Amino acid sequence: MRSRLHLPKLDPTPKTVIEYLIAHFPHIAAETWRDRVENGKVTLDDGTTLTTESPYRHGVTVLYSREVPTEPAADVEETILFQDANILVADKPHGMVVTPSGKHVERSLLARLQNSSGLGKLAPVHRLDRETAGVVLFTINIEARARYHELFSSRSVQREYLAVAKIDHVGMERVWDVRNRLEEGDPWYRRRIEKSSGAEPNAITRIELLESRNGLGLFRLRPETGKKHQLRVHMASIGCPIVGDPLYPDIRKGNEHDSPLQLLAERLSFIDPLSGESRSFISTRQLLWPVE
Question: Is 168 a catalytic residue?
Fold first, then answer.
């Protein structure tokens, strides 16, 4: 994943681009910038590779790769399910972020796909939580991006998830239509259901229990909206928290690799806005089901 930095008009003007980069990022050692430049990891948006002598020119954009020395390696690799001239569809494993975040930069799904495919303008149309596995749609070129984003904003995409979750009793309901309003919770990275009267719903999920055994159930989830942590909050709200969820209904400390979140974005279906074709992509990944 490459970061972008626009060079502003300055007075006095730096002599070189690298001089500006060193001054602009005081927390990054000057030697680190020199190494990046000498190894061809810094370019201009016109494709020119930066050198230590490249003069400063305001109005251009510098592209550079952010590096994390302690970045963990990817345990499981992604799979490309489909690719044409406009889109790429990937099957993401559990534990991989979609876009660079924190210590996950080069191991992010976007960076890995850009590096393996050479598609520098690749961009995700939607997101999955790091803990969630499954199908993710990317656009390959900027011209097509808005058309595919519109599919999600207009709710023209059918999304189906599978989840393994705890159940209270065998004779419980089998279908739920959950509608409520999700707001920022405490801590900030959690979400909560707004319970005040008159709160307009902004999160809608249809949940169906497919099978149950040994205190666990296999559920199919069909969200109409795409709020952060929506499915995880909604499952906890019906008394069926997803197995391996470290945040809902309560924050659970521990090693994420001991029990990955048992949530899978299994299917993504839509009418292609450019070709008019019916598209349906299915994940090849599996949840821990059936249980003994």
Answer: no
